[in-house]
Amino acid sequence: MRTNIEIDEDLITEAMKVTGHKTKKATVEEGLKLIIQLNQQSKIRKLKGKLTWNGDLEKMRLDQ
């Protein structure tokens, strides 16, 4: 999808330096992927202590 947006030139330049990407497109796409990943991790963290697990950890460790 083609989208035209104005991005702070210093911000995109710094992002390109730290990521090593040679294009603005690649840099922006990585940023969007990171936003999605962080959001998904946040949702997973909210489940901590709310799920139960049934199984035998010792038996699983012995399976090859």
UniProtKB/TrEMBL annotation:
InterPro entries for this protein: VapB_antitoxin
Highest taxon, organism lineage: Bacteria
Lineage: Bacteria, Pseudomonadati, Bacteroidota, Cytophagia, Cytophagales
Name under which the protein is recorded: Type II toxin-antitoxin system VapB family antitoxin
